[in-house]
Write a structure and sequence with these properties.
Keywords: Cell outer membrane, Membrane, Transmembrane, Transmembrane beta strand, Transport
CATH architecture of one domain: Up-down Bundle
Strand order of the largest sheet: 2-3-5-6
Number of helices: 8
CATH superfamily of one domain: Outer membrane efflux proteins (OEP)
Protein name: Outer membrane efflux protein
CATH topology of one domain: Outer membrane efflux proteins (OEP)
Oligomer: single chain
GO cellular component, one term: efflux pump complex
Subcellular location: Cell outer membrane
Pfam families: OEP (PF02321)
Strand content: 5-15%
Distance between the termini: 41 Å
Structural class: alpha+beta
Length: 402
Amino acid sequence: MGWSQQQITLERCYDLVTENYPLAKQKALLENKNDLEIDAIETAKLPQLHLDAQASYLSDVTQVPIPNSGIEPPNNDQYRATLSVNQLIYHGGSIEASSKAKQAQLKTQQKELEVTLYQLKQQVNQLYFSILLNNESFDLLKAKQTQLESKLQEVKSGIKHGSMLPSSDKILEAELLKIQQQFSEINNNKTVLVETLATLIGKPLDVSTEFQKPEIAISLTPTVQRPEMALFQLKKEEIESQEQLLHKENIPKVLGFATGGIGNPGLNMLDNSFEPFYTVGIKLNWNVFDWNSNKKKRESLLINKDIVDNETEIFQLNNNIQLNQHQKEIDKIAEHIVIDTEIITLRKDVLLATESQLRHGVITASTYITELTNLYEAENMLITHNIQLELAKANYNITQGH
């Protein structure tokens, strides 16, 4: 049975953190909540039923001051139970406006989730490229170990033939032990990084997972495609839906009503017995004067629009500052890489000369290790700068919205 090593890419990590981060669950919750709220709004179109029951005692009642009229006054204790039905006939579109306002609110809330999840991509970048750097450092250290082991055999042969000092091999062996410590540290760091990334993206990963190097290109254009820009637009659309709802508030509403019940007395106040009764009719509700409450609410919404415009301007300013900083960082690292390459070329020449001197007993093993370490550190700096360059490019793209 064949075994294939697990592979993962940076783009896949982006997708996974967006899908699996706990906050992503709120999208479905918000949709369910919105559906329930809209259903509740739509119930205003259905008949509204009200059951009322009342028992009261009156200190005085109406009497007919005509002697021998035979009309008995109402009882002081009175009872009534009614069932009322109200049916909205005309509402001027206020229910639809309320539903649209809720839909606009949902879109804004979902975009806010998207913005928060998008910001997690920079955390993914930091972890992913730290793992790549860890892998590169491991490979470089392995090459140093191989070179030292080869050199140790040469030194032992030189000691055997008397061309080198007897303690020279001990110096190299001590350096190899230090490398073992460095391997342990690198492996421990990688375990922590991989476990942290796995937790963040919600996917099992282990140290054997192959993290593919991304090929990152950047576009030096001022165009920003961040989800925050869409969020600002949705906020304005939500405000506009609230404006439409306010416009519908003062439109007259027409309702039909019917009330049936039993009471003592009923509608005939002179009949002292329990009697059924009913009333039907139509009524108009119209708030003809609200002390400019509606107008002030609309003015408040206009201010909210201005606030959103201001937030947009601030975001664009700060985002452009970040893009400029990323660009400067990219340029700086690129310059470092050029110098790193030159340093490595020189260090290799020095080490080559040192190897010859070591073979002829001109220098000690300590001097050789010093020069080998200098080359290793220069090569390590180069791979660090290469990874930092790709990280800076990835962060530039995230800041730009690509």
